[in-house]
Backbone:
């Protein structure tokens, strides 16, 4: 006759999930604290202040772990929204700080010059990869602030003179003293790239992969 003990020993045991080495949850802490209380020396008990401090420290660590988990969940939930927002930029142009300009969809080059102070002489040059000046303009005296510029990439006869990246060189001066302006250019957005590992979304532009945060403004 089979006994109850035989049935118990024959029944398959459900394996318990092993915890990572060094891992401790709230139940483990409470068991440890209870064991500490029951096995303490009655003539030298644990100091109440130390016990309260240990409990507060554990609660703080547990709270931080829960907060990190919540933030990770929020980030995962917001990621598709950020991707959709970036996708709406495809086909548009963004103004970014750079002295390298690439042609827009119509072949034109455009951007802005930011003067920190008034200038009595400002000139602008477009230089190709060989160092040759393919186009230049004299803008004359200009007030401080943003100055827009554009060039259709053609000469006076309508022939295309440039079709690739060009360096923008700005010379500005006031009473013979050189002024250092900031140059920004417009670049087209052709697509987006979102890494599979959850990395930051990048915009595919004429200037390469750029972060959405690099955009000064959109057009």
Residues:
């Amino acid at each position: 006759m089979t006994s109850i003990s035989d049935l118990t020993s024959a029944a398959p045991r459900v394996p318990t999930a092993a915890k990572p080495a060094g891992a401790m949850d709230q139940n483990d802490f409470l068991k440890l604290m209870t064991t500490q209380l029951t096995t303490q020396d009655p003539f030298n008990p644990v100091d109440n202040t130390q016990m309260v401090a240990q409990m507060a420290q554990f609660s703080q660590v547990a709270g931080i772990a829960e907060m990190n988990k919540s933030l990770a969940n929020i980030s995962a939930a917001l990621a598709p929204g950020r991707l959709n927002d970036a996708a709406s930029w495809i086909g548009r142009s963004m103004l970014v700080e750079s002295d390298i300009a690439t042609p827009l969809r119509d072949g034109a080059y455009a951007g802005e010059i930011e003067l920190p102070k008034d200038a009595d002489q400002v000139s602008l040059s477009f230089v190709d990869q060989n160092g040759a000046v393919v186009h230049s303009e004299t803008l004359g005296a200009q007030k401080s602030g943003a100055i827009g510029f554009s060039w259709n990439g053609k000469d006076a006869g309508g022939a295309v003179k440039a079709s690739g990246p060009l360096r923008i060189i700005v010379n500005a001066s006031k009473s013979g003293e050189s002024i250092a302006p900031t140059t920004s250019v417009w670049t087209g957005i052709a697509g987006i790239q979102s890494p599979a590992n959850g990395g930051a979304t990048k915009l595919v532009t004429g200037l390469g992969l750029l972060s959405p945060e690099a955009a000064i403004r959109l057009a």
